[in-house]
Amino acid sequence: MAIHIALAKGRIHKVVMKYLKESGYDFPTYTEESRKLIFEDASGSLKVTLVKSPDVAVYVERGAADIGIVGEDVLIEDNAGAKVYEVLDIGIGRCNMAVAGVKGKTVDMSKRITVGTKYPRIARRYFEQNHHSVDIIKLNGSVELAPLVGLSDVIVDIVETGNTLRANGLEVLEYFMDFSARMICNPVSFKLKYQEISTLIEVIKQNEIK
Ligand SMILES: Nc1ncnc2c1ncn2[C@@H]1O[C@H](COP(=O)(O)OP(=O)(O)OP(=O)(O)O)[C@@H](O)[C@H]1O
Ligand SMILES: O=P(O)(O)OC[C@H]1O[C@H](OP(=O)(O)OP(=O)(O)O)[C@H](O)[C@@H]1O
What we know:
Layout: E1 3-8, H1 11-22, E2 38-40, E3 46-51, H2 56-61, E4 67-71, H3 72-78, E5 85-89, E6 95-102, E7 113-117, H4 120-129, E8 134-138, H5 145-148, E9 154-159, H6 163-167, E10 170-179, E11 181-185, H7 187-192, H8 194-206
Parallel strand pairs: 1-3, 1-4, 7-8, 7-9
Antiparallel strand pairs: 2-3, 4-11, 5-11, 6-9, 6-10
The structure holds adenosine-5'-triphosphate and 1-O-pyrophosphono-5-O-phosphono-alpha-D-ribofuranose.
Pfam families: HisG (PF01634)
EC number: 2.4.2.17
Family: Belongs to the ATP phosphoribosyltransferase family. Short subfamily.
């Protein structure tokens, strides 16, 4: 039985598709530039669909995909409570969540501060745990702009190399979580396709994804 994998479209799918190819799965119609969203491997054992990150767990929970690969940040922010099994830390897409602000500018955390972020739940939980009073402003990208134009005091965002912060004159105030990409599985698929899914997990475990 073929396994259907929903991959988070973007950084994660590009690395995973490269890796699957190196592991012997040939997807004849796949290129990074392609606008196609569904790809089947030549042996007929894998079908891959490219899905927006927060939707990966939706496809898997509802059984429209057997397996999903998506960032842990997205599982925590958008899919908490999804009825899926998390079966593997696949080790790619490593990044940190951080509070950042304008370089050299002191932020008085004893006062109510505004926070720009794509991750309102994660941000709120962090500040609540630290007993800081905050107004969260949900943004959809280019979050680094917010403290530069006076929209927020600080941001909560993903930091990987730190290049985006540096390029915009910001600095990390505190790292507070780290993430990597996770493989999730539909519980029914896990039973029905146990052999096929176990084989795929073993292939991924044995060959370190770069
Ligand atoms: N430097 C990084 N910036 C953002 N995400 C990263 C980074 N490094 C690893 N990741 C992982 O990659 C995922 C996002 O990938 P990408 O930004 O390509 O997708 P996207 O759908 O374009 O996201 P968005 O629309 O939120 O920008 C994150 O959920 C995270 O798990
Ligand atoms: O530390 P770095 O290696 O610079 O990576 C971090 C940057 O990458 C992500 O943005 P993305 O490219 O997804 O753009 P967006 O903010 O517009 O979504 C993230 O939101 C940071 O801005």
